[in-house]
Specification:
The chain is built from ten helices and 13 strands. With 385 residues, the chain is α+β, with helices and mostly antiparallel strands. Among the domains are: 178 residues, Carboxypeptidase-like, regulatory domain (Immunoglobulin-like, Sandwich); 68 residues, no CATH class. The strands form four sheets. Strands 4-1-8-6 form a four-stranded mixed β-sheet, with no helix packed on it. Strands 3-2-5-7 form a four-stranded antiparallel β-sheet. Strands 11-10-12 form a three-stranded antiparallel β-sheet, with helices on one face.
């Protein structure tokens, strides 16, 4: 600024005036933040981190099964993401780009081609993760599944999986939309139909699933919506307006400029104070899950054996045969009285029988549907805790 004034002293008056006014305008604009909007936009961009989802099964999870579906909630998003098994089967990995924040991750069981399902243990309870772009390592969520044989999968369990899968396709990202979503619902229908003891009602529910959801709908939003700070913008605008007033005051009286500025500020304050303050009304959101109820019992162990059940007495003289020792003794006396030899031989009689050889313990429990609170939300604005 000092150099500009010094330069003006050595040039024509009207030229110097134009330059000084320009320098003042540039200085005011810089002070008011007019040249920092681009920097501010870059700062406001959301940082995302690739979160890894690892799913493994002990048996039965292959390309003919439906995928394991991750339910990701938190940081103003609530969506589903499908994890499919690789070519070798029984394991699958996928990544999801999440913005920085806190999330809860849970999984929906696949349905295999024979109608079996899975007990999901490590993530049977929802897993909480924190996504931080500055952290050394990105979060990894591991889900281990143990196969439940088809004859032990109840109708109630299947119906729960069907309902959850429909919700997932309806509110899923691109892994659950379009051809991918259609393929998942087709496999769900076919695999439920192959389950020997599934009810007609459950099979029909799986068949109707593709009619109840729109696989071609827009994929769910996986990152929070861009946030706009109206307060900062209005202040910037106000400062810009005031700058204009200050600049124009060069050719007008100070009292006129001051009056205009106060009027604008008064209107802004009135507008802000007229907006009512929102008070959250928190409500519990409930969900259901399958919980295994143990029932350990002693189960006998059996095997087939040859068991001795008696003897056979065979006389050498006349071939007489009996299994009764008293009868054999009586026949021997008869032979002696006749002057014949009374000797005989004995053969052991065996019978094949199934006998108990011991026992072992077995968990003959069952699955029950449990209701729990998965998150709390505001009934009026939808905000979550």
């Amino acid at each position: 600024m000092g150099k500009a004034i010094e330069w003006a002293k050595n040039h024509k008056p009207h030229t110097a005036a134009i330059v000084v006014v320009a320098v003042i305008a540039v200085s005011i604009a810089a002070a008011s933040g007019a040249f920092t909007q681009q920097d501010k936009t870059a700062t406001d961009e959301q940082k995302t981190v690739d979160v890894t989802l690892n799913v493994t099964a002990d048996n039965g999870w292959d390309e003919n099964a439906t995928p394991a579906i991750a339910h990701i909630e938190g940081n103003d998003v609530d969506f589903y993401h499908a994890v499919t098994p690789d070519a070798e089967g029984n394991k699958g990995t996928s990544t999801v780009a999440l913005a920085e924040g806190n999330y809860t991750v849970s999984f929906i069981s696949p349905v295999n081609s024979a109608g079996s399902a899975f007990g999901i243990y490590d993530t049977g309870e929802p897993v909480d993760i924190t996504v931080d772009a500055d952290a050394e390592d990105a979060p990894i969520v591991n889900c281990h599944m143990t196969q439940i044989p088809a004859d032990q999968v109840t109708d109630e369990m299947l119906q729960d999986i069907i309902d959850q899968t429909k919700d997932a396709v309806e509110n899923g990202d691109e892994t659950l939309k379009g051809d991918a979503g259609t393929d998942i619902l087709d496999k769900l229908e076919g695999n439920v139909a192959q389950k020997p003891n599934a009810s007609d009602e459950t099979k029909q529910e799986a068949t109707d699933a593709d009619k109840e959801v729109d696989v071609n709908d827009t994929p769910a939003q996986t990152t929070p919506p861009a946030m706009t700070d109206n307060t900062d913008n209005s202040n910037t605008g106000s400062q810009s307006s005031n700058t204009g007033n200050q600049s124009s005051s060069t050719g007008s009286s100070n009292s006129g400029s001051t009056s205009t500025g106060n009027s604008g500020n008064s209107g802004s304050s009135s507008s802000q104070s007229s907006q009512p303050t929102h008070t959250h009304t928190w409500v519990n959101h409930e969900a259901t899950r399958q919980v295994w109820v143990s029932n350990w019992v002693d189960v006998p162990d059996y095997e087939t054996q040859q068991v001795v059940v008696g003897n056979k007495y065979i006389f050498a003289y006349d071939g007489y045969t009996t299994t009764d020792i008293n009868d054999a003794k009586a026949h021997a006396r008869q032979l002696i009285m006749q002057g014949a030899p009374e000797n005989y031989r004995t053969e052991t009689i065996y019978e094949t029988q199934t006998v108990q050889t011991g026992s072992h313990k077995e968990d003959q429990g069952h699955y029950e549907t449990e209701t729990y609170v998965d998150y709390v939300y505001c009934s009026s604005c939808g905000a979550r805790q």
